[in-house]
Each structure stands twice: as structure tokens, then as C-alpha cells.
Specification:
With 159 residues, the chain is an alpha+beta fold. The protein has a domain of 96 residues: Signal recognition particle alu RNA binding heterodimer, srp9/1 (2-Layer Sandwich). Helix content is 25%, strand content 27%. The chain contains 5 helices and 7 strands, in the order ααββαβαββββα. It has a 5-stranded mixed beta sheet with strand order 3-6-5-4-7. The chain has a two-stranded antiparallel ribbon with strand order 1-2. The chain is globular and about 45 Å long. Pfam families: Glyoxalase. This is VOC domain-containing protein.
Length: 159
């Protein structure tokens, strides 16, 4: 008998993470994510009663957090607990510009870009499909100097 766990006995290789969102206003959600956020279309399919479009969102990761850390993230990015159990985060080149673009396209800005303790500039939006989004831009080495764990520099205060 082997002491190896199930993963060691039969390794599983996941090839893609696909987040599936059911949007009541499909056309608005498609316009927002494809045309405004710029996610390229990988495929589109229809059935007699509906449609689905697969958009390429780059590399995918699954971020798991416990409720206490989720509350900490909300406090840093927004100043209060606002997210449900699912929040989608997109890394972008310029979170300030993309936040403005998506707000003009119909997203509700929950929090303007905020400098975080983990060296990124993060904003929070309510977007089509009933998704809460974080847009983040990595600031690089040294950008977070003077920002300690648990302390945020809100961009509206820092500027």
C-alpha cells in the first residue's frame, strides 16, 4: 500500500480556468468586456434559445482567501467590506485610465485607484453581469516603500 495522496497517484493537469458569468443583459455585458475592457473574442456559439461568447482574459489564476483576508482586501481597496464571495481581478497597464474608461462605459466606480501594501494600484468597480471587479496595475520594486502591511495609501488622499 502506498502512502501517496490522490494527487500523487493520479495527477490532474488543469489547462484553463474559465469563469462563466450569466448576464441578464448579454449584449451590454459583451460590449463592456469585449469592446471596452478589450478582452479578445476566442469563440462565439449559439443555441436556438441563447448565446455564449468566450473571451480571452490572459493568464488565469484562482485566488483563494478566507473571510478575514477578504475583508482586509476590501478595507485596503475600498475602505469597507463590499465584495461578495466572488470578485474578478484584471491586471491592466494603467488602472487609472482603464477605471475611467469602464466608468464611461457604464461601470459604477466603487473606489478610485488606491495604492496597496502589495505594491499595486487597485480600483474597484461594479460591472455588467453583476460582477465586482478589481483593476490592478503592478507598481514594481520600491514603489511601495513606506507602505506597510495593513496600511493603505488611498490615491485620493496621496495626490
Amino acid at each position: 500500500m502506498s502512502d501517496a495522496g490522490p494527487a500523487e497517484q493520479h495527477p490532474v493537469r488543469v489547462h484553463e480556468l474559465r469563469l462563466v458569468v450569466t448576464a441578464a443583459d448579454y449584449d451590454e455585458a459583451l460590449r463592456f468586456y469585449r469592446d471596452e475592457l478589450g478582452l479578445p473574442e476566442r469563440g462565439a456559439f449559439s443555441s436556438p434559445d441563447g448565446r455564449v461568447t468566450i473571451l480571452d482574459a490572459g493568464r488565469a489564476t484562482l485566488e483563494l482567501t478566507d473571510p478575514n483576508h477578504a475583508e482586509f482586501i476590501d478595507e485596503v481597496e475600498v475602505g469597507r467590506r463590499v465584495a461578495g464571495h466572488i470578485r474578478v481581478a484584471f491586471q491592466v497597464d494603467d488602472s487609472k485610465a482603464v477605471t475611467a474608461r469602464l466608468a464611461a462605459a457604464g461601470a459604477e466606480v466603487v473606489a478610485e485607484p488606491t495604492r496597496t501594501p502589495w505594491n499595486s494600484l487597485n480600483s474597484r468597480l461594479e460591472a455588467p453581469g453583476a460582477l465586482q471587479l478589481t483593476l490592478f496595475t503592478e507598481l514594481g520594486d520600491g514603489a511601495g516603500e513606506g507602505v506597510s502591511e495593513g496600511v493603505s495609501e488611498r490615491s485620493d488622499q496621496a495626490e
